[in-house]
Amino acid sequence: MKFRPCIDLKEGKVVQIVGGTLTSDGTQAESNFESDSSPSDFAKRYRELDLPGGHVISLGPGNWDAAIEALNAYPGGMHFGGGVTPGNASGFLDAGASHVIVTSYVFREGVVDYERLDELVKVVGSKRLVLDLSCRFRDGAYWVVTDRWTCFTELNVSADTLGVLSKYCDEFLVHGVDVEGKMDGIEEQLVQLLGKHSPIPVTYAGGARRLADLDLVDTLGKGRVDLTIGSALDIFGGRVPFSEVARWSSGRD
Questions:
Q1: Was domain 6-250 assigned CATH 3.20.20.70?
Q2: For a tag on the chain, would you pick the N or C end, based on fewer CB atoms within 10 A?
Q3: Most confident by average pLDDT, 7-11, 27-31, 32-36
Protein backbone atom coordinates (compact mmCIF):
# COMPACT_ATOMS: atom_id res chain seq x y z
CA MET A 1 0.00 0.00 0.00
CA LYS A 2 1.34 3.42 -0.99
CA PHE A 3 0.41 7.07 -0.88
CA ARG A 4 -0.48 8.50 -4.30
CA PRO A 5 -0.14 12.29 -4.75
CA CYS A 6 -2.50 14.46 -6.76
CA ILE A 7 -2.67 17.67 -8.78
CA ASP A 8 -6.26 18.80 -9.38
CA LEU A 9 -6.61 21.61 -11.93
CA LYS A 10 -9.37 24.16 -12.36
CA GLU A 11 -8.93 27.01 -14.85
CA GLY A 12 -5.19 26.32 -14.85
CA LYS A 13 -4.78 26.55 -11.07
CA VAL A 14 -3.98 23.81 -8.58
CA VAL A 15 -7.07 23.43 -6.38
CA GLN A 16 -8.87 21.16 -3.97
CA ILE A 17 -12.65 20.94 -4.28
CA VAL A 18 -15.65 19.40 -2.55
CA GLY A 19 -16.42 16.65 -5.06
CA GLY A 20 -20.19 16.65 -4.81
CA THR A 21 -20.40 20.35 -5.72
CA LEU A 22 -18.76 20.08 -9.15
CA THR A 23 -21.02 20.93 -12.08
CA SER A 24 -21.14 18.78 -15.21
CA ASP A 25 -19.24 21.32 -17.31
CA GLY A 26 -16.59 21.72 -14.62
CA THR A 27 -17.04 25.48 -14.41
CA GLN A 28 -18.25 25.65 -10.81
CA ALA A 29 -17.38 23.84 -7.60
CA GLU A 30 -16.95 24.62 -3.95
CA SER A 31 -13.20 24.95 -3.39
CA ASN A 32 -11.22 24.21 -0.24
CA PHE A 33 -7.98 25.60 -1.63
CA GLU A 34 -6.33 27.35 -4.58
CA SER A 35 -2.55 27.47 -4.82
CA ASP A 36 -0.25 30.24 -5.96
CA SER A 37 2.33 27.59 -6.86
CA SER A 38 2.40 26.22 -10.40
CA PRO A 39 1.38 22.68 -11.36
CA SER A 40 5.01 21.95 -12.20
CA ASP A 41 6.09 22.99 -8.69
CA PHE A 42 3.94 20.23 -7.23
CA ALA A 43 5.02 17.67 -9.83
CA LYS A 44 8.71 18.44 -9.24
CA ARG A 45 8.24 17.99 -5.51
CA TYR A 46 6.61 14.61 -6.02
CA ARG A 47 9.42 13.59 -8.36
CA GLU A 48 12.13 14.67 -5.90
CA LEU A 49 10.48 12.61 -3.15
CA ASP A 50 10.03 9.61 -5.48
CA LEU A 51 6.24 9.48 -5.19
CA PRO A 52 5.10 7.99 -8.52
CA GLY A 53 1.67 6.89 -9.64
CA GLY A 54 -0.28 9.97 -8.62
CA HIS A 55 -2.75 11.75 -10.85
CA VAL A 56 -3.21 15.05 -12.62
CA ILE A 57 -6.94 15.72 -13.03
CA SER A 58 -8.47 18.41 -15.23
CA LEU A 59 -11.70 19.71 -13.69
CA GLY A 60 -13.30 21.38 -16.67
CA PRO A 61 -11.92 23.55 -19.49
CA GLY A 62 -8.84 25.78 -19.50
CA ASN A 63 -6.37 23.26 -18.11
CA TRP A 64 -4.47 21.95 -21.14
CA ASP A 65 -1.32 24.04 -20.65
CA ALA A 66 -1.29 23.47 -16.89
CA ALA A 67 -1.66 19.71 -17.35
CA ILE A 68 1.12 19.50 -19.92
CA GLU A 69 3.34 21.57 -17.63
CA ALA A 70 2.81 19.17 -14.74
CA LEU A 71 3.33 16.05 -16.87
CA ASN A 72 6.50 17.49 -18.40
CA ALA A 73 7.87 18.11 -14.90
CA TYR A 74 7.56 14.46 -13.85
CA PRO A 75 7.94 12.32 -16.98
CA GLY A 76 6.47 8.87 -16.46
CA GLY A 77 5.53 9.72 -12.90
CA MET A 78 1.84 10.65 -13.05
CA HIS A 79 -1.45 9.66 -14.64
CA PHE A 80 -3.69 12.16 -16.42
CA GLY A 81 -7.47 12.30 -16.41
CA GLY A 82 -10.15 14.70 -17.54
CA GLY A 83 -11.82 14.59 -20.93
CA VAL A 84 -9.56 11.85 -22.29
CA THR A 85 -10.61 10.37 -25.65
CA PRO A 86 -8.85 8.25 -28.30
CA GLY A 87 -8.19 11.50 -30.16
CA ASN A 88 -6.20 13.23 -27.42
CA ALA A 89 -4.89 10.40 -25.24
CA SER A 90 -1.60 10.07 -27.09
CA GLY A 91 -0.90 13.76 -26.56
CA PHE A 92 -0.97 13.33 -22.78
CA LEU A 93 1.16 10.20 -22.96
CA ASP A 94 3.67 11.99 -25.18
CA ALA A 95 3.75 14.86 -22.67
CA GLY A 96 4.90 12.49 -19.94
CA ALA A 97 1.83 10.77 -18.50
CA SER A 98 2.49 7.14 -17.61
CA HIS A 99 -1.24 6.38 -17.98
CA VAL A 100 -4.45 8.11 -19.00
CA ILE A 101 -7.55 7.93 -16.81
CA VAL A 102 -10.98 7.53 -18.38
CA THR A 103 -14.56 7.44 -17.15
CA SER A 104 -17.17 9.38 -19.10
CA TYR A 105 -15.92 8.46 -22.57
CA VAL A 106 -16.57 4.76 -22.02
CA PHE A 107 -20.14 5.24 -20.81
CA ARG A 108 -23.17 5.85 -22.97
CA GLU A 109 -26.69 6.16 -21.57
CA GLY A 110 -25.46 4.97 -18.20
CA VAL A 111 -23.81 1.71 -19.28
CA VAL A 112 -20.32 0.72 -20.40
CA ASP A 113 -19.83 1.18 -24.13
CA TYR A 114 -17.44 -1.67 -24.87
CA GLU A 115 -16.84 -0.51 -28.44
CA ARG A 116 -15.48 2.76 -27.09
CA LEU A 117 -13.47 0.93 -24.44
CA ASP A 118 -11.97 -1.37 -27.08
CA GLU A 119 -11.12 1.69 -29.17
CA LEU A 120 -9.25 3.26 -26.27
CA VAL A 121 -7.36 0.07 -25.58
CA LYS A 122 -6.28 -0.10 -29.22
CA VAL A 123 -4.96 3.47 -29.07
CA VAL A 124 -3.14 3.46 -25.73
CA GLY A 125 -2.91 -0.19 -24.70
CA SER A 126 -4.43 -1.68 -21.57
CA LYS A 127 -1.13 -1.26 -19.68
CA ARG A 128 -1.39 2.52 -19.98
CA LEU A 129 -5.08 2.84 -19.20
CA VAL A 130 -6.69 3.56 -15.82
CA LEU A 131 -10.45 3.27 -15.45
CA ASP A 132 -12.00 5.76 -13.06
CA LEU A 133 -14.82 4.10 -11.15
CA SER A 134 -15.53 7.03 -8.85
CA CYS A 135 -18.84 6.42 -7.17
CA ARG A 136 -21.62 7.53 -4.85
CA PHE A 137 -23.66 5.46 -2.41
CA ARG A 138 -27.32 4.87 -3.19
CA ASP A 139 -29.79 2.06 -2.48
CA GLY A 140 -27.25 -0.05 -0.66
CA ALA A 141 -24.50 0.04 -3.30
CA TYR A 142 -21.78 2.25 -4.74
CA TRP A 143 -22.76 3.41 -8.22
CA VAL A 144 -20.26 4.76 -10.74
CA VAL A 145 -20.85 8.43 -11.57
CA THR A 146 -19.73 10.22 -14.73
CA ASP A 147 -19.70 13.71 -16.26
CA ARG A 148 -17.55 15.06 -13.44
CA TRP A 149 -19.43 13.00 -10.86
CA THR A 150 -22.86 14.49 -11.61
CA CYS A 151 -24.60 11.59 -13.41
CA PHE A 152 -25.34 8.16 -11.96
CA THR A 153 -24.72 5.19 -14.23
CA GLU A 154 -26.29 1.74 -14.06
CA LEU A 155 -22.94 0.20 -13.05
CA ASN A 156 -22.16 -0.50 -9.42
CA VAL A 157 -18.75 -1.20 -7.94
CA SER A 158 -18.83 -4.92 -7.23
CA ALA A 159 -16.67 -8.01 -7.52
CA ASP A 160 -18.16 -8.74 -10.95
CA THR A 161 -17.60 -5.19 -12.21
CA LEU A 162 -14.01 -5.10 -11.02
CA GLY A 163 -13.31 -8.52 -12.48
CA VAL A 164 -14.69 -7.75 -15.95
CA LEU A 165 -13.19 -4.28 -16.32
CA SER A 166 -9.77 -5.32 -15.00
CA LYS A 167 -9.18 -7.07 -18.32
CA TYR A 168 -9.18 -3.70 -20.10
CA CYS A 169 -6.89 -1.62 -17.90
CA ASP A 170 -3.83 -1.53 -15.69
CA GLU A 171 -5.36 0.12 -12.62
CA PHE A 172 -8.54 1.57 -11.14
CA LEU A 173 -8.99 5.00 -9.57
CA VAL A 174 -11.96 5.32 -7.23
CA HIS A 175 -13.06 8.54 -5.56
CA GLY A 176 -15.63 8.27 -2.80
CA VAL A 177 -17.47 11.27 -4.20
CA ASP A 178 -19.85 11.74 -1.26
CA VAL A 179 -16.89 12.44 1.05
CA GLU A 180 -14.43 13.93 -1.46
CA GLY A 181 -12.89 17.14 -0.10
CA LYS A 182 -14.90 17.12 3.13
CA MET A 183 -12.18 15.70 5.42
CA ASP A 184 -14.82 13.87 7.46
CA GLY A 185 -13.37 10.38 7.10
CA ILE A 186 -12.99 7.81 4.36
CA GLU A 187 -15.65 5.49 2.92
CA GLU A 188 -14.56 2.47 4.94
CA GLN A 189 -17.01 0.05 3.35
CA LEU A 190 -15.82 1.03 -0.13
CA VAL A 191 -12.15 0.58 0.78
CA GLN A 192 -12.93 -2.89 2.16
CA LEU A 193 -14.79 -3.79 -1.03
CA LEU A 194 -11.88 -2.67 -3.21
CA GLY A 195 -9.32 -4.49 -1.11
CA LYS A 196 -11.28 -7.71 -1.22
CA HIS A 197 -12.33 -7.76 -4.86
CA SER A 198 -10.03 -5.71 -7.12
CA PRO A 199 -7.74 -8.05 -9.08
CA ILE A 200 -5.47 -5.16 -10.18
CA PRO A 201 -3.92 -2.13 -8.41
CA VAL A 202 -6.51 0.37 -7.18
CA THR A 203 -6.23 3.84 -5.66
CA TYR A 204 -8.91 5.23 -3.34
CA ALA A 205 -9.46 8.96 -2.76
CA GLY A 206 -11.95 10.83 -0.60
CA GLY A 207 -12.40 12.01 2.98
CA ALA A 208 -8.92 11.37 4.37
CA ARG A 209 -8.27 13.75 7.28
CA ARG A 210 -5.30 12.50 9.30
CA LEU A 211 -2.04 10.65 9.02
CA ALA A 212 -3.60 7.61 10.67
CA ASP A 213 -5.89 7.19 7.65
CA LEU A 214 -2.92 5.72 5.80
CA ASP A 215 -2.78 2.89 8.32
CA LEU A 216 -6.57 2.58 8.31
CA VAL A 217 -6.72 2.14 4.54
CA ASP A 218 -3.78 -0.26 4.70
CA THR A 219 -5.72 -2.39 7.18
CA LEU A 220 -9.17 -2.18 5.60
CA GLY A 221 -7.80 -2.73 2.10
CA LYS A 222 -5.53 -5.60 3.21
CA GLY A 223 -2.50 -3.72 1.86
CA ARG A 224 -3.97 -3.80 -1.66
CA VAL A 225 -5.53 -0.31 -1.85
CA ASP A 226 -3.41 2.82 -2.29
CA LEU A 227 -4.56 6.16 -0.88
CA THR A 228 -4.69 9.70 -2.19
CA ILE A 229 -4.88 12.50 0.36
CA GLY A 230 -5.80 15.95 -0.95
CA SER A 231 -7.50 18.70 1.05
CA ALA A 232 -6.19 17.50 4.41
CA LEU A 233 -2.53 18.00 3.44
CA ASP A 234 -0.73 21.16 4.56
CA ILE A 235 0.45 21.76 0.98
CA PHE A 236 -3.24 22.18 0.13
CA GLY A 237 -4.15 24.27 3.17
CA GLY A 238 -4.89 21.38 5.53
CA ARG A 239 -3.28 20.18 8.75
CA VAL A 240 -1.67 16.87 7.82
CA PRO A 241 2.07 17.39 7.20
CA PHE A 242 2.90 16.34 3.66
CA SER A 243 6.46 15.57 4.78
CA GLU A 244 5.16 12.94 7.22
CA VAL A 245 2.94 11.38 4.58
CA ALA A 246 5.89 11.15 2.18
CA ARG A 247 8.02 9.65 4.94
CA TRP A 248 5.31 7.07 5.69
CA SER A 249 5.14 6.09 2.04
CA SER A 250 8.91 5.84 1.62
CA GLY A 251 9.01 3.53 4.62
CA ARG A 252 6.85 1.02 2.73
CA ASP A 253 9.57 0.25 0.20
A1: yes
A2: C
A3: 7-11
